[in-house]
TrEMBL record:
Sequence ranges assigned to domain STAS in this UniProt record: 17-105
Cited InterPro entries: MlaB-like_STAS (IPR058548), Permease_MalE (IPR030802), STAS_dom (IPR002645), STAS_dom_sf (IPR036513)
GO molecular function terms noted in the UniProt entry: phospholipid transporter activity
Pfam family, one: STAS_2
Record carries keyword Cell membrane: no
Signal peptide segment: none
Identification of the protein by name: STAS domain-containing protein
A GO CC annotation given for this chain: ATP-binding cassette (ABC) transporter complex
Annotated organism of origin: Nitratireductor mangrovi
Taxon lineage: Bacteria, Pseudomonadati, Pseudomonadota, Alphaproteobacteria, Hyphomicrobiales
Length: 391
């Protein structure tokens, strides 16, 4: 073990910044202690730069439990180390980060990336900037995919851990998540579905009126709602409402070190935190999709009645004659997969939250955007599959 600190810094009148370094192959463990203030960090600056430049270090663990006082100077030094190591492709794990220190580190983080900021403002390699952004996007997408597969596998491993403890899924946690994911989201989904169904029916009737074929509005609305719109609208609303909530909950637990506490207790955090939410989403999505479809058709019936003089009885009679069971099943069968996608992306972003509220907000936004994008892409893939196999 190597201890880095000024030689004359052992008295209380001379507060110091120090760290103990332990190397285990490509893994470096730093235990920070003392006061990390602007006037006390100079002696450890050079040693930290050596660690930042050491290409043989692939994993760095930083223990902040021994820090006494910290100001922006000390926080910048610590965050500079994190930024430099991560820029080399290595991983950094920060342990025992009190909330005030985490907040301060988050504030100084942008200041540790001067080159990136200069590149954004326009340097001498502007032509390479799009390629750099493309490379970063591809790299992040690859990392997100690996993390998603890790969470998916750990999700199935989680209940196996609980089997040994006498239960597979906590019924209380499952019911709680069903209430939050499905029951609480139902009113807004029903309201928006009614409005969307009414708008589609009105626009379709307006166009078909020129051809004297207003009755075809029933065919148009039923196919669109039952095959595509019902599940897609529900998935987008659930991604924006429940997906963001899952990311915020797991991210807040990560910031409060509750995830680490579960590991210490011998529990799989993915199994305990993510598995009930995934099950709730996979069960709740089909139910909400069916409710959304009924609500959209109800809105269409009302508009067709008042706008095109198509009575509800005539609407339902033609609907029963036109819609077959495959049309209904094609829409609903996609719902569990949409719920699985939303849950995994929300969990990946929640687990990626670092120790600051800025990081939490960034990952919540990212979870919503990614979920909606992937859900739309998945819906397109389902449409291509059905066209090739079912139709």
């Amino acid at each position: 073990m190597i201890t880095k600190a000024p030689a004359d810094a052992t008295t209380e009148d001379a507060p110091v910044a120090r760290f103990d370094l332990r190397r285990e192959g490509s893994r470096a463990v730093l235990a920070l202690s003392g006061d990390w203030l602007t006037r006390t960090v100079a002696p450890v600056d050079a040693d930290l730069r050596l660690i930042e430049a050491d290409g043989g270090v692939r994993t760095v663990e930083i223990d902040l439990s021994g820090i006494g006082r910290l100001d922006t100077g000390g926080a910048w030094l610590i965050q500079r180390l994190v930024t430099a190591v991560e820029a080399r492709g290595a991983t950094v794990d920060m342990n025992h980060v009190p909330a005030p220190i985490a907040s301060l580190l988050g504030e100084v983080e942008p200041a540790t990336r001067p080159d990136e900021e200069a590149g954004r403002q326009g340097g001498g390699f502007r032509l390479l900037r799009p390629l750099e952004l493309l490379g970063r996007a591809v790299s992040e997408a690859g990392q997100d995919f690996l993390q998603a597969m890790n969470i998916l596998g750990a999700t199935f491993h989680g209940p196996q851990m609980k089997v040994g403890r006498g239960r597979v899924l906590g019924m209380a946690a499952f019911v709680h998540q069903i209430d939050r994911v499905c029951v609480s989201a139902a009113p807004v989904i029903l309201l928006i579905s009614v409005i969307i169904g009414a708008i589609i029916a009105q626009q379709a009737a307006y166009q078909l009126r020129y051809f004297g074929a207003e009755m075809l509005v029933i065919d148009f609305v039923s196919v669109l709602v039952l095959r595509e719109l019902g599940v897609l609208l529900t998935a987008i609303l659930i991604a924006g409402r429940s997906g963001s909530a899952i990311t915020a909950e797991i991210g807040a637990m990560k910031m409060r070190e509750e995830v680490d506490a579960l590991k210490v207790m011998g529990l799989n955090p993915i199994g305990v935190l993510v598995f009930p939410r995934l099950v709730a989403l996979m069960i709740g999505m089909p139910l909400l999709t069916i409710a959304s479809e009924f609500a959209s058709l109800a809105g269409a019936i009302v508009v067709a009645w008042f706008y095109s003089d198509i009575t509800p009885a005539a609407f339902l009679t033609r609907l029963r004659g036109f819609v077959d069971m495959p049309t209904v099943v094609i829409g609903v069968i996609k719902a569990p997969f949409m719920g699985l996608i939303i849950g995994i992306i929300a969990a990946v972003e929640g687990m990626a939250v670092k120790g600051s509220t800025e990081s939490l907000g960034r990952h919540v936004t990212s979870a919503v955007v990614k979920s909606i994008f992937v859900v739309i892409v998945a819906d397109g893939l389902f449409a291509m599959f059905y066209a090739a196999v079912v139709d």
